[in-house]
Task: inverse folding
C-alpha cells in the first residue's frame, strides 16, 4: 500500500526547533524514504500563537537551501556546521553547487502535494505568509527578480565554508 515517498511529513520552521533538529529530521526522513514538506510558521490572528514571532527570513531561506541539498544532492550532516544553539553557521559544499541550487529556485518553492509523477506540485499561496507580505515559499518558480530577493535574504556568502566537496 505504501512505498517510497508515499508517506509524507510536514515540517514548520519557527516553532522552537533548532536548525540542527530540522537537518537531523531531513536526513532521517530521507533515509526512510518519507517526503518532507517544509513550511514557515505563520502566526494566525485570533489564535494562541498570534503574537509568536516567525523565524527570520534568512533562517527560513537557509533551511530551504539545506533541505534541497540533502534531498537532491546528498549533502551529509557532517558538511553542516552549527553554532552552540544549533543554528546553521556554514555549509561545507562547493560554492558552485550552492549557486546552482539557488539559481535554480526550486528549493524556495512551496512543496507538498506530489503530482502523478511524484514531483512536488503544490502551488498553494499564503500558507506561510499573508497577501502583501514577503514570500516565505513561492507558489511558482522564482524569476530573476525573486532570486535576487532570495539571495539578499539568505546571505549565502556568509555560509560558504569551503570549495571542498561534501556531497556524494
Result:
Amino acid at each position: 500500500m505504501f512505498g517510497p515517498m508515499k508517506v509524507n511529513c510536514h515540517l514548520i520552521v519557527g516553532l522552537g526547533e533548532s536548525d540542527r533538529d530540522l537537518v537531523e529530521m531531513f536526513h532521517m526522513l530521507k533515509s526512510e524514504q518519507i517526503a518532507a514538506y517544509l513550511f514557515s510558521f505563520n502566526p494566525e490572528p485570533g489564535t494562541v500563537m498570534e503574537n509568536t514571532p516567525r523565524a527570520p527570513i534568512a533562517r527560513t531561506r537557509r533551511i530551504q537551501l539545506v533541505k534541497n541539498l540533502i534531498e537532491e544532492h546528498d549533502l551529509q550532516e557532517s558538511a553542516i556546521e552549527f553554532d552552540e544553539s544549533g543554528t546553521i553557521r556554514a555549509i561545507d559544499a562547493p560554492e558552485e553547487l550552492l549557486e546552482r541550487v539557488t539559481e535554480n529556485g526550486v528549493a524556495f518553492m512551496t512543496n507538498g502535494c506530489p503530482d502523478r509523477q511524484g514531483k512536488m506540485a503544490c502551488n498553494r499561496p499564503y500558507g506561510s505568509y499573508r497577501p502583501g507580505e514577503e514570500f516565505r515559499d513561492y507558489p511558482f518558480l522564482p524569476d530573476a527578480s525573486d532570486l535576487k530577493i532570495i539571495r539578499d535574504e539568505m546571505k549565502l556568502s556568509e555560509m560558504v565554508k569551503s570549495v571542498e566537496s561534501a556531497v556524494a
Observations:
- The longest strand covers residues 8-13.
- The chain has a mean pLDDT of 89.
- Residues 8-158 form one domain.
- The helical segments are 19-31, 57-73, 95-104, 144-154.
